[in-house]
Specification:
Shape: globular
CATH topology of the largest domain: Beta-carbonic Anhydrase, Chain A
Strand order of the largest sheet: 2-1-3-4-5-6
CATH superfamily of the largest domain: Carbonic anhydrase
Structural class: alpha/beta
CATH architecture of the largest domain: 3-Layer(aba) Sandwich
Helix content: 40-55%
Largest sheet: 6 strands, mixed
Radius of gyration: 19 Å
CATH class of the largest domain: Alpha Beta
Number of helices: 9
Strand content: 15-25%
């Protein structure tokens, strides 16, 4: 019950901050006009709105295990694809950010398959989207430590999702027209840094530098 009470108190603060001001309330009530779609992981430590300091209505968020984007295929999981379609075609966002992170439990499930629930294998089936990433890591980094392989896969899966985004014809058309930008971001929980992929240099570079004293975090 303590958690529920905390949530209720939190909603009261939200109510006062955003709904107590008439102008803000009117704006939220009329509809949403976000400029950015963020495709993030459902990890409880990686809340896109909290990480970016966004207010309600500023970003449209899709969260799933390991921030994956399925390719545009007839049998693709419709949940993520429909949200991308709505954000790009309906809301006409100006940018899409695929936000990955260190210590991703989904990537670890991909690298070391195990059935989490005895009766089902939903996580394993979902992570098959990133199977090319796993195969490449095992082929190119066989002598690296597990942690190095995990981190390489976490970053490579972001690029894999960006590639899969370009399989959606209406999204690809907007990118080619210059009305939609794609970004790959990586939140390093260990150091507190935020990295962005540079297509020109073909590597992740710091957007926000690490903290002076890195702290290790528990893996989800």
């Amino acid at each position: 019950m303590q958690d529920i009470e905390k949530f209720v108190r939190g909603f009261c603060r939200f109510q006062q901050q955003y709904l107590g001001e008439q102008a803000v309330f009117d704006s939220l009530r009329e509809g949403q006009r976000p400029g950015t779609l963020v495709i993030g992981c459902c990890d409880s430590r990686v809340d896109p709105a909290l990480l970016t300091g966004s207010d309600p209505g500023e970003i449209f968020v899709v969260r799933n295990v390991a921030n994956l984007v399925p390719p545009c295929e007839p049998d693709a999981p419709p949940g993520v694809s429909s949200a991308i379609e709505f954000a790009v075609c309906g809301l006409e966002v100006a940018r899409v950010i695929v936000l990955g992170h260190a210590g991703c439990g989904g990537i670890r499930a991909l690298m070391t398959p195990r059935r989490i629930a005895p009766e089902t294998n939903f996580v394993e089936r979902w992570m098959r989207i990133a199977e090319p990433v796993r195969r490449r890591a095992m082929r190119e980094l066989p002598h690296k430590s597990r942690n190095d392989q995990y981190k390489a896969c976490e970053m490579a899966s972001i690029l894999h999702s960006l590639d899969n985004l370009m399989t959606y014809p209406w999204l690809k058309r907007r990118v080619e027209e210059g009305t939609l930008m794609l970004h790959g971001w990586y939140f390093d929980i260990d150091t507190g840094a935020l990295l962005a992929y540079s297509p020109r240099k073909q590597e992740f570079l710091p957007l926000v530098s690490p903290l002076e004293e890195p702290r290790l975090q528990a893996v989800a």
